[in-house]
Amino acid sequence: MGAPRRERPLCAHLCKERRLGTQSPPRGSSSEARQAGSSGGALSFCLSLGAETRRGFGFSSAAKHRPLPRRAAAGWAMVEQADDAPLLFWAEGPAVSVPEPVEASGWGNSCSSSAWGGPGELVAGPGGCLPEQEPEQVEEDQILAVFVVTFDPRSGNMVEWCLPEDIDLEGVEFKSMASGSHRIQSDFIYFRKGLCFGLACFANMPVESEIERGARMKSVGILSPSYTLLYRYMHFLENQVRHQLEMPGHYSHLEAFYDDKKGVLPAGKGTPNSQQPVYWLPSIHKYMYPEMKITHPAGCMSQFIKFFGEQILTLWKFALLRKRILIFSPPPIGVVCYRVYCCCCLANVSLPGIGGTVPESKPFFYVNVADIEMLETEVSYVACTTEKIFEEKQDLYDVYVDNQNVKTHHEHLQPLLKINSADKEKYRRLNDQRQMLMYSQEVDGDCSSCEEDLFVLFFMEQNNRIFQTLMEVSASQDKTLTADHARGMGLDPQGDRSFLMDLLEVYGIDVMLVIDNPCCT
Fold this sequence. Notes:
The protein is of the alpha/beta class. Helices cover 32% and strands 14% of the residues. It has helices at residues 10-20, 31-37, 43-47, 51-56, 62-65, 108-114, 172-175, 234-246, 252-261, 300-308, 312-320, 334-345, 372-375, 421-444, 451-475, 483-488, 497-507; strands at residues 89-90, 145-152, 156-163, 186-193, 196-206, 215-224, 294-295, 324-328, 362-366, 381-385, 399-402, 405-407, 480-481, 512-513.
């Protein structure tokens, strides 16, 4: 953890890091889309505050009253972005700052700087804005293991090499090479191993070898106590897996990497089995939002919204209720790991005292059949898989997402699948605020804000409003929650009645719901 420092607005941290170029732009996207995707803003949060506060965040008040041009009103089609970029992260505690760009050392940090014009070079954001220079604290690297997994035609997936040699990597050979990967050329995978998190890059290369049956497949990956820094090494791992395919058995670069970046757990023997605290993404009740720093691929959140459309409101309710959510997709699975993260972001609450007794919505990322025993003990999680057999194992999940089809086998959760009028209104507001943000960027050259802030803060504000109202009603004398209260929380009194009842039960809030059930009137 870094030393305490002077706080700056969250959007300034985000925009600063992107303009400094501390991460790679999404692969396969145009330079214009990358530039547009690197800016955005916490507009939903700022618009809910007064004009003085908005000016303090760097927003132009004139943008709110200026008519939207036809281009801005085009909605999602205005900016096309790829979502196969390094995974975003949330800081694990107070006053953890985003990393400064450093000179290339051959490891993960070099990929970030070189992708944007060279180590340490300042890159102008939209509108020609240059970042302010200010010394920042750098979160410490802690790589617990580096490994190479290969597919053997006779033995199947196996760990070919690792450091340290005595570390427990049981199951990693399946987590780092997803089922069905033989049908694709490359992929990246986030996963959980014990109390650690991993990132692996996979590649498949055709070879003229009867022994290898015409294809050589490998993954190169790393383990860390948290996933907040794993994205830094995406480019390094991609290069190394290609190197392992072309020159099998040459591990000198990986050995040097581990010697440079290795970390030791505070207690135990340095294995993932050591009982150390796990820092889950949505612990908003522990650390307030201004102390959280986010680094992510441009377009991760917008791709999530565009992919699910209005159904993100369905996922939002399930996430807030801490349900077990399993997302199925055939390979590649990397972009689906983003959806796991985004789904967890929907449930953030910044009010103190909320959710302390509720299980956290844990991002497990990629899981396979080897994880079934572990999943049987979990009461709340979000994960993704490439194995269709999970659909039949309904005791392992509450919500199953197949492509854009969200479904549940629990009868009492069925009403939450229906999009009601309040859901449509929230989705409309989210789109409108995004369009206003893009217009502000285009016309004013405002690079002090980003779209990812808008997404996170939109749902956080919605969640805060719900729980603030529920706590106020709970503290009142009659403890009666009426239809007017529901509308004030942005909910449909009838359509969200079942959701409200489940919410009160899950969070243990003592309130009497007096909204009539339409089936009984």
